[in-house]
Amino acid sequence: MQPEETLLLIFVAFLVAKLGGEVMERMRLPAVTGELMAGIILGPTLLNLITNEDSFFDVLAQLGATFLLFTVGMETKLSELKKVGLVAASVAAMGVVVPFVMGYYVSVLLFASSIEAMFVATALVATSVGITARVLEDMGMIHSTEAKIILGAAVIDDILGMIVLTLVSGVAVGELTYLSVGIVIGEAICFVAIVTILGTRVVKYASGKRDVRFDRTTNGQWAIHYSTRAFRRDSWLDKLKQRQAPFVIILIVIFGLSALASFIGLAAIIGAFFAGLIFSDTKETYELENKFEPLNVLLVPFFFVVMGARVDFANFTNVLPFAIVVTVVAILSKLIGCSLGAITRGEKTALIVGAGMVPRGEVGIVVAMIGLNMDIIAQSTYSVIVLVSIVTTLYAPFLIKTVVKAESKKKRPLPWPIRGSRP
Fold first, then answer.
1. Whole-prediction pTM value?
2. pLDDT truncated to tens, each residue of the chain (423 aa)?
3. From CA 321, how far away is CA 397, in angstroms rounded?
4. Domain ranges of the chain
5. DSSP string, 171-237
6. Within 13 Å of residue 89, how many CA atoms lie on the same side as its CB?
């Protein structure tokens, strides 16, 4: 494809995505839904303008997901995430066990192959937090308790899902050893521990966050001043000569942690999320929200357009009945399992968390691709998993919005004639 054609296709994709988002927002629906629908229109289903051969769209989509999760992590302080740590762990555990068990036994009945059934079940374990994060952000709920539980659970869910994938792959090829499982678990734990504990301390030191200034007042007493200039003067980030040096360093950290997470088997966007997490205390110092907003506006829509473009209904005719059954299981298993995990925080929080953990997105498709490349699952099974991932991704925004509205109505006070007293 010529450079001119590439630029034209990028222009069309961005324009259609923004138009779709505008239409959906005017209908009081999440803008992400319009961007996903734009991908379906431009993909093989209708216009076939975006295909799997357009690798540059995959790069744009990966960048979009990376900056989206960095922004989400930046809005989530580690201290606040710790407050929901036990609930998030419970949600993640139930969100792995229930979908795997339900997915496995249903798949055995459908595909009559235990190995294929295990891969389908593993794909149902996955959770794509990118969709939920965008929906919660559009609804102004990104700072809510539900959002913090979902984000924390998604991180743990990704680690558990990677372990399950390792176990299933080992069973499939007959090479499962305690050493391989131990290595996978150890890498995941070390990554999370090093980034959250060491990373936050390094960032505070580099930004001069702990520096304060003591001044004597007119009456002879000492006063503590947390002046921006006071601690930024001692920050080595500000001593760099390059323009926008702190912003450049943060970009390097984002890409570095994303690459590291991908290298050890975690989703790359988890690395970006942790990068945002460790810089959350310094976002006001360097005005990170204002600096990353243009990047999000430009790149995040491409992530959702590519997700929608992966839909090709023409290839699902023969497997559609199986796909419908597995899709229902995928939705119900996450909704039930994750809701049970968060039930201690109340019915409203439990339902919102359950709905937020439903989308499989690109994570489920990656699991399916691994099984296909290993010649463990058939092309038809792969198609089923892809459809399940796409449908849960498309359905999640509507489900989250519906659950939030339904629970809000329960809290709404009754009209004064019914309560028996005038206002």
1. 0.72
2. 678 888 999 999 999 999 999 998 888 777 888 898 899 899 887 898 988 777 889 899 889 989 988 888 887 677 666 777 889 999 999 999 999 999 999 988 887 678 888 888 998 998 877 778 878 887 888 888 888 898 888 878 877 877 787 778 777 766 556 777 677 777 777 887 888 888 888 887 776 654 444 455 555 554 444 444 444 445 666 677 777 878 888 999 999 999 998 887 777 888 888 898 888 877 777 788 888 999 999 999 998 898 888 776 666 677 788 889 999 999 999 999 999 999 998 888 899 999 999 988 667 777 777 787 778 888 788 888 888 888 888 888 888 888 888 877 765 554 544 444 444
3. 24
4. 3-207+241-410, 210-239
5. HHHT---HHHHHHHHHHHHHHHHIIIIIIHHHHHHHHTTT--EEEE-TTS-EEEE--HHHHHTT-TT
6. 4
* Structure tokens belonging to residue 159: 């680690």
CA distance readout (Å), 221 to 211, 213, 216, 231? 20, 14, 6, 22
Q: How is residue 25 annotated by DSSP?
A: H
Annotate 142-154 with b (16+ C-beta within 10 A) or e (fewer): beebbbbbbbbbb
Indicate the CATH number for domain 3-207+241-410: 1.20.1530.20
